[in-house]
Amino acid sequence: MPGQNRAYVGRRNRFARLLRSLWRGLREWCGDLAYEQYLASRVARESPGPALTRSEFYLEQSDRRYSRPNRCC
Amino acid sequence: MISVLRFLVWLLVALVGAGSLAEIAVHRGEPINAMWFVAAALGCYALAFRFYSAFVAAHLLTLDDTRATPAERFDDGRDFVPTNKWVLFGHHFAAIAGPGPLVGPTLAAQFGYLPGTMWLIAGAIFAGCVQDFVILFFSIRRNGKSLGEMAREEVSRRGGLIAQIAVLAIMVILLGVIALVVVNALKSSPWATFTLAMTIPIAMLVGLYLRFLRPGRVLEASVIGVALVMFVVMAGQWVAESPSWAHAFTLSGVALAFALIAYGFAASALPVWLLLAPRDYLSAFIKAGAIFSLAAGILLVRPEILMPPLTRFIDGNGPVFAGKIFPFCFITIACGAISGFHSLISSGTTPKMILRESHSRLIGYGAMLMESFVGVMAMVAACAMTPGVYFAINSPAGIVGNTADAAAKTISDWGFALTGATMTNMAKLVGEPSLLNRPGGAPSLAVGMAQIFSNTIGGPRLLSIWYHFAIMFEALFILTVLDAGTRVGRFMIQELGGHLWKPFARTSWLPGMLLSSALIVAMWGYFLYQGVIDPLGGINSLWPLFGIANQLLACVALVLATTIMIKMGRVRWLWVTVLPMIWLVTVTMTASFQKIFSANTRIGFLSLAQSLAAQMAAGKIPVAKIADTRRIIFNQRLDAVVTAALALMILVLIVEALVQWYLLLTKRKAATLHETPYVATAWGANFTGVAHGDD
User: Tens digit of pLDDT for each residue in B571-589?
Assistant: First the structure.
C-alpha cells in the first residue's frame, strides 16, 4: 500500500534524523565539533585574517578552557 | 479537555512524589525498597521543575527570549558559542558534577537514610537549584562575568575581594580533602593503585594523539582511551595476583600522598594538552557512563535499603565523623544539595554559551536537580549494603580497631551485626587485602556500586572487577578536579601575586609558573598530609572544613543574588534567596562554632589540641609519639584558625550586605544595576542552536 509505505518512510526518516542529531549532540558535547563551529562562526561573522589551523585551534582552546574553573567538586 | 488531563497528570505526579516521600519518612521495621527513593526524588524534582522553577523564572527573573544573549552578540566560536540547550545541559552537568555528591551522602548515611535523603531533595529544590539558576541568569545579563566580578560591581569592592579569597580557600581545602579520599581508596591496594597509575600514561598517549596524530578529534581519541582504561582495570587483577608486581604497587598513605602532590605539580606545570585535557576527556565519558549505569543498575536490581532510617549516631558520636544532624548532616552533604562552587561554573563558562534566556531554567535549575539525584543514588548505594559492613569500611582504626575481629566486635556492640569473617570474605570477593578503615566514602560507595552492578551483570564472580571499575571511576574524576583545580589555583595565586609584583602575573613566565604551582600544591598538600597522618582518619576534621568553605561560597552567591534582586525591585520575592541564605548562614556559623569550640574532643579542634597538650604535659604520651602529637596539636590549631577565618569572612560579608540593603531599601542610595543594555535577538523563534547550519 503506497500510504503505508509513505508512513514507513516517514518514520524511518524521523528515526534517522533523531540519530543524526544525537550523534551531533554527542560530538558537540565532548568538543569534537569545536573546530568546525569555530570555522562556521568565522564565516558567519566575516572575520578578517587567516583562520587558525585545526592543531593551533585545539591548543589554544585547551589552554583557555583550563585557565578558569571548569570542574566542580 | 487537555487542561483537565494536564491537571490530572500533575496531580498524579504530586501524589507519587508526596506518597513516596511519606513512605520513606514514616517507614519502620522491614527494609524499604530503593524504588521509593527513586520515586520520591523524581516526583519532587518534576513538581519543583514544573512549578517552582517556572515561578522563579517568571516572577524573580522575568526571562526574556527577545533579548540577545552574550553567545549571540559575541559569537567567536571560542568562548562565546551559541549551544543547543540539551548539549549545554550535558556540558554544564559534566562541569558541576564531581566527587562531592557521591562522597557527601555516603558519609552522611551514618545518621541513617532519612536525614540525608530529605536534605538532598529539599535542599536542591529550594537552595541549590535556585542558586545555580539565578547566578547563571545574572551572569548572562552581564556578558558572562564571574562571581567575583559581579560581587565587586553589585555589592562592594570588599564583597568582591571576599569572594576571591573564598574561592581560593575553598579550592585549597577541597583539593586537600579529595586527594585524601583517593589516598584512602588506594592505600595498600595494588589493583586500584596500578589502575589509576596507568591512567596517566594512557592520558598522555591520548594527549599526543590529539596533538600530533589527529588534532582535535576528541571523540575517536576518547574511545581509544576509554578502551585502554577498561583494559587496565582488568589487568589490575594480574598485578594484584603477582607477588612482585603487587609489592611494587602496594603503597602506604604517606607515599601515595607524595605521589599525588607530585602529580598535581606536574599537571599544573606541564602543557595542558599533554595530561590535563586528555584526562578530562576520558573522565567525562567515564563519568557519564558510570552515572547512567548506576541509575540503570538501581532500576534493574531495585535493592532493599538495609540501613535504618535513623541510627544511634544522631547523638553526635558517629564513627565516620562526629557531630549531630544539625548542623553536620548539612555540612557533610554539601554539594548534593547546594554547592557554592557551582556558582563559579554558572558564572563564567555556561552563560557565554547559552542561546536564549529561557534555557537557563533547564540548564541552571535542571542540571542541579540531576546532581541531587546522583546524591540520592549514592545514598541508596551506601544504605543498600549491610550497615555493619558500611561502618567497618568507613570507620577509622582509631575508633573500631584495625583487625577484622576487633572492628566486628565494636560494630556489633553498636547494634549492627557483623562478624570478622564477613569483612574478610567481602575483601576477598572484591580482590582487596582488606576493606577495613577506609574512611572517605569512595571504597564503601564502590562496594555498594559493585554489589548493584554484579547483581545486574556477572554475579559475585565479577564483583572484584566492578569494585575496581567503581574505584577507578571515582579516583579518575577526583584526579580531574585535582589537576584542573591546581592549575586554576595557580592562576589565582599569580593574579593575587601580580598585585605585589607585576611580572608574577604573567602566566607564561617560567619562574612565576613554577613558584605559583609549587605554592598551591604545597597548600593543599599540607592539608592532605595532615589528613593522612591523623589517627582519626583525617576525614573527620577535613570534610567538615571543606563543607563549611563550600557553603560559605554559596552564602556569597546568595548574598549577591539578593542584592541584585533588591536593585531590580523584586523585594516581594526576596524570600526565595533570603531563606536559603539564612539557613546556610545558620548552618555554617553553628558548624564553625562547634568545630572550633566544642568541648567534645572529636568535634572541637581546640579541645583536642588542649587535651593532647595536657596528656603530653602529664607524660602520658610515649616518647616515640611526641613529635607526631606535637604536629597533630599544631594542625588542630591551624584548622581552628582556618575555620574562624572563613566564618569571619561570612560575617563581614553579611554586615556589608545588610548595610547595602538598608541603604537601597530606604532609598538612601540609588539602585544602579550593572546589567548590559537590551539588544533584540536577530534569531527567529525556532532557532535551536545549529548556529551555522552544517545540517
Answer: 999 999 999 999 999 999 9
Q: What is the mean pLDDT of residues B118-124?
A: 98
B336 lies within 8 A of chain A by CB: no
A11 Cβ neighbours under 8 A, 6+ residues apart? none
Q: SS3 for B518? A: helix
The answer to whether the Cβ–Cβ distance between A72 and B77 falls below 8 Å is no
Listed in sequence order, the residues at least 6 apart from B225 whose beta carbon sits closer than 8 Å to its beta carbon are B202, B203, B205, B206, B278, B281, B282
- Give the mean pLDDT of B377-405: 93
Residues B121/B40, Cβ–Cβ less than 8 Å: yes
**CA pair distance B629, B608, nearest whole angstrom:** 11
Using the predicted structure, report yes or no on whether residue B487 has a pLDDT greater than 80: yes
User: Would you call the peptide bond into A50 cis, given omega within 30 degrees of 0 as the criterion?
Assistant: no
ipTM of predicted assembly, 2 dp? 0.89
- A57 and A45 in a single domain? The answer is yes
- Identify whether residues A20 and A43 lie together within a single domain: no
Same domain, A38 and A19: no
B625 has a pLDDT exceeding 80 = yes
Residue of chain A whose Cα is closest to the Cα of B211: A55
3-state DSSP call for residue B33? strand
Does B694 contact A at CB distance below 8 Å?
A: yes
- Which pLDDT value is given to residue B499? 78
Q: Let me know whether A41 and A71 are in one domain.
A: yes
Nearest CA in chain B to A44: B692
pLDDT band at residue B305 under the 50/70/90 scheme: very high
**Inter-chain CB pairs, A–B, below 8 Å:** 145
Which of these, B602, B45, B582, B139, lies nearest to B336 by C-alpha position? B45
Could you tell me the residue range of the domain that residue A8 belongs to? 1-31
A68 touches chain B (CB under 8 A): yes
- In angstroms, the separation between the Cα of residue B525 and the nearest Cα of chain A is 17
Same domain, A24 and A46: no
Would the CB atoms of B349 and A38 count as touching at under 8 Å? no
Cα-only R_g, chain A? 19
Q: What is the pLDDT of residue B108?
A: 96
pLDDT at position B63 over 90? yes
Assess B216–A contact: CB distance below 8 Å, yes or no: yes
A18 & A42 share domain: no
The alpha carbon of residue A1 is apart from the nearest alpha carbon of chain B, in Å, by 32
Cα–Cα dist B273/B275, whole Å: 6
- Residue-level pLDDT at A4: 64
Please, how many CA atoms are within 13 Å of residue B399, restricted to the half-sphere of its CB?
Answer: 25
Q: Which residues of A touch B79 (CB under 8 A)?
A: 64
What is the model's pLDDT at position B694? 41
Q: Read off the pLDDT of residues B338-350 as tens digits, 9 standing for 90 and up.
A: 999 999 999 988 9
Q: Is B224 on the interface with A (CB under 8 A)?
A: no
Residue B550: pLDDT over 50: yes
pLDDT at B508: 78
Between residues 46 and 65 of chain A, which touch chain B (CB distance below 8 Å)?
Answer: 53-55, 57-65
In B, residues 88-107, which contact A (CB 8 Å cutoff)? 90-91, 94-100
The total number of structural domains that make up chain A: 2
Look-up: residue for cell 588534532? B215
Residues A15 and A43 in one domain: no
Same domain, A46 and A26: no
